[in-house]
Automatic annotation (TrEMBL):
Keywords: Isomerase, Lyase
Domain D-serine dehydratase-like residue range list: 249-354
Lineage: Bacteria, Pseudomonadati, Bacteroidota, Cytophagia, Cytophagales
GO molecular function term, any single one: alanine racemase activity
Protein name: Alanine racemase
Taxonomic source organism: Aquiflexum gelatinilyticum
Length: 365
């Protein structure tokens, strides 16, 4: 890898080939099922990755904040959806952005709906976010009183256009039976579509979790898919069965600063400020903050013997090393770390370098 000789500190590497493959696979899956793919770009947060996505027919994206929406404005997107219960303190910012960019938001209560109805100067679409078991946020799927109160408030202005219902089945990250979970998701969105379609014939339904969108084939009459993490994937998705290690498109390049062969430990420059502190548990109860790959001229290779970060602090990381790794590595070498949660690692690093040395933007960079 030509770029390796220039790396002296933790650097987030992005394999364009793997990333494009992930975009292509999910795009083809959506088309095969007759769905529109509207990926959540809180994972890459990158203009360049957005251009790659457009090459696979993706014309709309989802973001998680006004700030992120502003970053993607002017890039040619047909619509940018802000998938977070709308923060009423940012009403003016939303209205200003909507002057030149088609935007939509998520509403979950009357108060915010009323504020937008009164203060928006430019039109904005909205989804009502539905909670059908996740429990994080959203209107309870059976709370028709609140759903209709939101719709009534929105009708008081021509600046709010009802688009449909959004359901993030986030419990797919800890529920083992994803098939059963998706039966509930399909049923919830199907019921709402049936109930409100006569009054709103153009309403659409969208779901957006990566584990479900990666493994489910039957999405019923759900109209749109909005996964995000699939663009890069990570070890959490590997553990959930969403992908293979070979599908993870980012790896943190880290310098080796010490080796304790008698303890089978390797000290690296790479810690919580680079990887975040998402963790998986090992079978023995130990912690796993990321797994080692060997960096090569063309990307990285997965070792036959697994080594992983067993502990991290702010800048330090300690690898529990295999015999294979100890025989390959010396102080001053670089190793790659596949992240547990690629979204958080990318946010920490605020930018990428491709395996060919190209610098890639990030919204926080």
């Amino acid at each position: 890898m030509p770029v390796l000789s220039d790396i002296t500190s933790p650097t987030l590497l992005l394999d364009e080939k793997i990333c494009r493959h992930n975009l292509q696979v999910m795009s083809e899956k959506a088309k095969r099922n007759g769905k529109k793919l509207i990926p959540h770009f809180k994972t890459p947060q990158s203009h360049l990755v957005g251009k790659w996505a457009m090459e696979y027919g993706i014309r709309e994206i989802t973001v998680s904040s006004i700030k992120m929406a502003a970053y993607f404005c002017g890039q040619g997107w047909d619509n940018i959806h802000i998938a977070f219960p709308f923060n009423p303190l940012e009403t003016k910012n939303l209205s200003d952005l909507a002057k030149n960019q088609s935007l939509s938001v998520q509403l979950i209560n009357e108060a915010v709906t009323e504020k937008l109805a009164k203060e928006l100067e430019n039109p904005v679409g909205f989804f009502i976010e539905i909670d059908a078991g996740y429990g994080r946020t959203g209107v309870e799927v059976s709370d028709f009183g609140l759903i209709e109160a939101i719709l009534r408030k929105a009708k008081s202005t021509d600046k709010l256009k009802f688009k449909g219902f959004y359901l993030h089945a986030g419990h797919s990250y800890y529920e083992k039976d994803i098939q059963k979970l998706y039966e509930q998701t399909r049923a919830a969105l199907g019921m709402l579509k049936s109930k409100y379609r006569s009054e709103y014939p153009d309403l659409i339904t969208r779901t957006g979790d990566t584990p479900g969108c990666s493994v489910i084939e039957d999405f019923g009459d759900i109209d749109e898919l909005g996964p995000g993490n699939f663009v890069f994937y990570d070890l959490m998705q590997v553990a959930l069965g969403s992908c293979k290690r070979e599908d993870v498109a980012v790896a943190l390049a880290v310098p080796v600063v010490d080796i304790k062969k008698e303890r089978k430990e390797i000290l690296i420059h790479g810690g919580g400020v680079h990887l975040a502190k998402d963790v998986l548990l090992e079978p023995d109860g130990g912690k796993n903050f990321g797994e080692v790959v060997f960096l090569t001229e063309t990307g990285w290779e997965i070792p036959s013997q697994r080594s992983f970060l067993k502990s991290i602090s702010q800048e330090h990381g300690i690898i529990k090393a295999s015999d294979e790794l100890l025989s390959h590595i010396k102080v001053g070498d670089l190793l790659g770390i596949l992240p547990i949660h690629s979204c958080m690692t990318a946010d920490c690093m605020k930018g990428y370098t491709t395996i060919n040395g190209q610098k890639v933007d990030h919204a926080e960079g």
